[in-house]
Amino acid sequence: MEQRRFGDTDLVTSAIGFGTWEMSTTSYGEIDVKEASNAVGRAIDAGITLFDTAEVYGPYHSEELLARALGPRRKEIVLVTKVGFQYSDEGKNTGRNSKHDHVIARAEGCLRRLDTDVIDLLLIHWPDHQTPFEETMRALERLKADGKVRHYGVSNFTVEMMEECNRHGRIAANQVGYHMFDRRMEAAVLPHCRAQGIGYMAYGSLGFGLLSGAFTPETTFVDWDWRSSGRAFGLPLFEREHFLKELKVAERLKALAAKHGKSLPQMAIAWVLGNPAVTVALVGMRNERELAENVAAADWRLGAEDRAEIDRVFAEEGVPTYADAPQAV
């Protein structure tokens, strides 16, 4: 597995990361928890060294399941988790909160659930528009000074937000959505991260299932699946009219990938990793079959002609890539 460095830090991980949003069991379709847990060990065997989770996944379920699945192999991997929300007594997400004391307290909870003494990379999940970034950065700096986290960063932050954060510390990474159907980050965030030595973690590499090859025009989502709203981080990707057009693109891309002896998910991952600003492509892996398929994408390099052909498919099907759309914050 190819190894990549997070910007100008000493943090080095596999190019493909194991995403665990699906292990929340409460917002991302049906999943066999046992199979997903077994895939964790197999992923380490296959060379995947970065595992990404968050306290809000569940909440808490993903962190707890990942901790059990890792067991003594925790020391072999780079562990990433995210904080920045507050919760009711019933465990319901009640909004963003990145105040100093709250970040400290939530990080302590992550340490307990993940059964670890230190978090390799702690991210602020979404910008809290009610709290100055200077206050949040003080909390992250304190956690680092106390040895609770090795590195810290942000998620879903704009260029201006990252610049403000770096006036009060040094972020190692920004984790933002990036896939063929959502190219908003190409305009500013990706170039900024590359120029400033900030690692870029791409989530949604398979378009939240659109590039998995598993969807058909008959596909629907249960009401507790976040995709059932039709929206995906500010874009209408799962609204019916858009969804059907996107499936046509996916079918054509599947045929294009097959010419190389590859699958659609492998093409999607290779496309993300082909951007020189990307450090890690995060992919959900529900079982060992998906794991094996995803790992095989790490060594595929799409040529300029391949990428141009992909763009032609989008243009001919009239499907936007939202390159000029505003970032959801």
Tell me briefly what this model is:
This protein is α/β, with parallel strands linked by helices and 329 residues long. The protein contains 10 helices and 12 strands.
Features:
single chain, alpha/beta, two-stranded antiparallel ribbon, TIM Barrel, eight-stranded parallel beta barrel, 329 residues, 12 strands, globular
Mean pLDDT: 96
Strand content: 15-25%
What is the β-strand count?
Answer: 12
CATH class: Alpha Beta
Kindly describe this structure.
By secondary structure, the protein is an alpha/beta fold. 35% of the residues lie in helices and 16% in strands. Strands 3-4-5-8-9-10-11-12 form an eight-stranded parallel β-barrel, surrounded by four helices. A two-stranded antiparallel ribbon has the order 1-2. A two-stranded antiparallel sheet has the order 6-7. α7 packs antiparallel against α10 (304-317). The longest helix has 19 residues, at 240-258. The chain is globular. The chain starts with a strand and ends in a 12-residue tail after the last helix. The model has no long low-confidence stretch (mean pLDDT 96).
